[in-house]
Specification:
The protein has about 140 residues and is of the alpha+beta class. The chain contains six helices and six strands; from the N terminus they run ααβαβαβαβββα.
Length: about 140
Amino acid sequence: LNYLQMDQQAIVEAPVVDEKENALKRAISFADSRSLVVKGLHQVCKKINAEHKPKFVILANNSADADYKKIVTALCTANNVPLMIENEAETLGEWLGFCKRDVNKNVRKKVKCCSLAILDLAPETNDDERKIIEAQLKK
C-alpha cells in the first residue's frame, strides 16, 4: 500500500458525523462559553416566560418525568418559542460538558441535562451552522 491508498482507506473508514448534531453541539458549546445557555427546568421556564425570549429550547425526549415535557412544550407553544427535541438527555449533558473524561479524552461518565434554552447564538457560530439550525427550527 502506498500513502495515497492508505489515505483513501482512512477517509472511507472515518465515521459519518451528522451535520445537524455537529452544528448543534458547536453552537451549544460556543453559547455556553459566552453564558448564553440556560439549563434546567426552573431556569428554562423562567426564560421562556421572560420579556427577552430565548432563540430556541432543546428538550430531551427521554426525560424522567412526562409532566416535565408537557410543561416545557406548553410554555414554548404559548410563548411562540421554537422547540427542538433531542433523543438523549445524556447527549445534551455531554454537549454542555457535563461529563468526566479519561486521559485519552474518552467519555467515562455522563450527566443528564433534560432541557436547555439558547438565549442567542454566539458570534463564533459560522453561517453554515446557523443555516442548519434554522432549518431544524422550521420543521
